[in-house]
Amino acid sequence: MRNVANPFKPTAGGEPPLLIGRRKVIRDFEKGLDNGVGAPGRIMLITGARGTGKTVILTVLGDKARARKWDVIEETASEGLCERLVNELRDRDGLLDRLTIKPSLSFAGASVSLGEAELSPKRMPETLRKAMAERITLLEKHHAGLLISIDETQAADRSDMIAIATAIQHQIRERRNIAIVFAGLPQMVSDLFNDEVITFLRRAKMNVLTGIPVDEVRDAFRTTFHDSGMHIDERQLQTAAAATCGYPYMIQLVGYHIWDAADMRNSDEIFDDDVSQGITEARIDLDNAVCIPELHGLSRNDRAYLKAMAQSDGPSSTTAVAKRMGKTPNYAATYRKRLLDAYVIRETERGEVDFAVPFLREYLRRHDDE
Ligand SMILES: Nc1ncnc2c1ncn2[C@@H]1O[C@H](COP(=O)(O)OP(=O)(O)OP(=O)(O)O)[C@@H](O)[C@H]1O
Ligand SMILES: [Mg+2]
């Protein structure tokens, strides 16, 4: 029998039916927890372009920590990050709920509200450090550790990052049971983690979420379709997997729309038309959810730079882009920097530039007249 619900999850942060190709990050993290204080996986950095699965990985790592009875605080960087962290660290009722432990004497008393001064930027590093230490002391009585995860780290204020780095460094020096994972767009590494004041975080274990090999996508499609009661053949699986280019968000879109096309016919068998129609729908969604927003707000010259890049099938050197634009390398360098800062392009290891998100190249080629 065919499932009623579509198993694919093409939404931001939506947990996919099968988490493909991320075994190593998860294992490194689990080893970090299991190997005790000082293990490398206890400070982790996860980067990747939009839609590569950073938020999903944070959820999974949170689950792994919870399964070990750790307390987990999940935050997203934006103004007031440290203040929110302090409040959560001090929320003892929340802690009781999370750990499902009965109140004991050590938990008696309401949370103390903080004065303005303690939350001032100047005092924040100390306030956060104390709040962390107090929380960990409570947790250690129950043999539990503390995991803090921060999503969208590229949007964090430098002062917040300094406070967090200082506080964590202290806990680690004092051999407390703590782990922290930061996730964000690749630029965060150069912006925040190369900052002199935050050098401590350079020791973090770095994980870049890259594309997933197409054969792993195909295998996952096979399992997911079959498990949901849909019949799909090997050739169709291969076509569907190839259309994703291994881009996680596209994997969910393609799966979702193919499944949906068969579902619309009330069928438990995938036809070739469902595959082609599904891929077309997935591309439309990807354009709307990723390509158009990525290009939105860019100037005509930014676009000209991207179009010059799109002339090549792979990464381009800055000189080549300038030449294609008919401009000086200096002129092109300005736009290169702007686009890197906007996370639309990325620098390859060889110093060339490539699109941060696959499919942007194809999108620009298709819309060459705009
Ligand atoms: N390993 C994976 N295997 C299959 N699908 C995945 C995987 N990781 C993420 N996805 C899917 O990709 C989509 C994007 O995931 P997610 O929102 O976590 O990405 P992100 O990197 O946080 O994106 P953004 O930078 O926009 O916040 C979701 O639909 C999710 O289900
Ligand atoms: Mg995200």
From TrEMBL:
Pfam families: AAA_16
Domain Orc1-like AAA ATPase: 19-180
InterPro entries reported in the protein's UniProt record: AAA_16, P-loop_NTPase
Entry's transmembrane regions: none
PANTHER family: ATPASE DOMAIN-CONTAINING PROTEIN, DNA-BINDING PROTEIN-RELATED
Protein name: AAA family ATPase
Native organism: Bifidobacterium callitrichos
Lineage, uppermost ranks: Bacteria, Bacillati, Actinomycetota, Actinomycetes, Bifidobacteriales
